[in-house]
Amino acid sequence: MDNTLMQAPERTAPSQAPTRRTASVLLAVCIVLIGLNLRTVFSSFSAILPEITVASGMPAVLVTALTTGPVLLLGMVAPAAPALARRLGIERTILIAMIVLAAGLAVRGTGDFAAMAAGTVAAGAGIGIVNVLLPTLVKRDFQHRLGLMSGLYTGSICAAAALGAGFTQPLLGASGSWQAALGFWALPAVVVVLLFAPLALRRRPAPDRKQDDAGPSVWRSPLAWQITGFMALQAMMSFSVFAWLAPILRERGIDGAAAGYVVAGSIVVQVLGSFLAPPVAARLRSQGWLNAGIALLTGAGFALTILGPLDLVWVWAVMLGVGQGSLTALALTMIVLRTRDAPTAARVSGMMQCLGYGIGSSGTLLVGVLYTATGSFTPAALMFLGIGAAAAGMGFLAGRSRFVGS
């Protein structure tokens, strides 16, 4: 009997380890699935923009608002994310934001101008909150797998853009309705809400600890500003790809379906770059030269899709895809590699995405302004060469071996 009693703890202890591992795997899967919904609002709209404009008679000012507004909202709501997470818990805040995103995508699909604007605002706000908190969640729960998890969730974000770019045109063809083609993207968001809700509601929010607010002031940290500048410059190119690459290709004479495939192909390559870049970066003591080289590749790739020979469009698209996917992933990975703890990561993420996406939204606006003023995308190509060079300099500074607050 004594032997039996002594063996009992040995039977129960291992049973808890698989439970923790299962919960971690489940959380990792949910993070990836959430990422798959964070860019379809941008790429799905631009993929069928000419059809929407012709069918609805949408004025140019509304087109500009619907392409630039969501990116601007990402920055406007970002500062609220850390405070909401402290009050409600990270998982529950993300769950609420995903519900708002799903509702926004559904409302946008009704086709009414006012509903499209309201739905776009809601979707942008939801994405803005999730953008800030996903790196914080990775920093908190996957400290031993930062490179892998950063690659997985940034890759899923790029994959979301590819899905929107590649499938919205076929959805339009199958349904005959641009409203249905846009509204479809609410369905994956609803599925993720249903899958993530049990996990998010099961976890109790951590107590509101004052030490989470203590620590280094990111607004006084030169490194935090360098990371923010790196994010802002890559965002100017990234969101311009989502909003303008398909119209640029169609302007060059490629039909709508083919342009959608080229954009989707470029973004699929982005997924590969975003998977590979974070693990490579995590193994390096300094990421400065890696950041700089990828930024130059991205700027050159974007310029060549506008100015390069059309026969080589797939070469330019792949070049742009490798660069942009890696660049986006590296900018987000700087949050987890250049901070020492989750609270600091949350503050850097809020600052970086507030200013980064706020400034980044100007990229899509400037492309539209330059095209309207000149009737050509050539000035935009020169602009992207300049942005790529500036991102290289800022990325080199952001990637040096140091930590925010050190």
Automatic annotation (TrEMBL):
Transmembrane segment boundaries: 21-42, 54-77, 89-107, 113-134, 146-168, 180-201, 222-246, 258-277, 289-307, 313-337, 349-371, 377-398
UniProt keyword annotations, A-Z: Membrane, Transmembrane, Transmembrane helix
GO molecular function: transmembrane transporter activity
Domain of life of the organism encoding this protein: Bacteria
Protein name: MFS transporter
Provenance organism: Arthrobacter caoxuetaonis
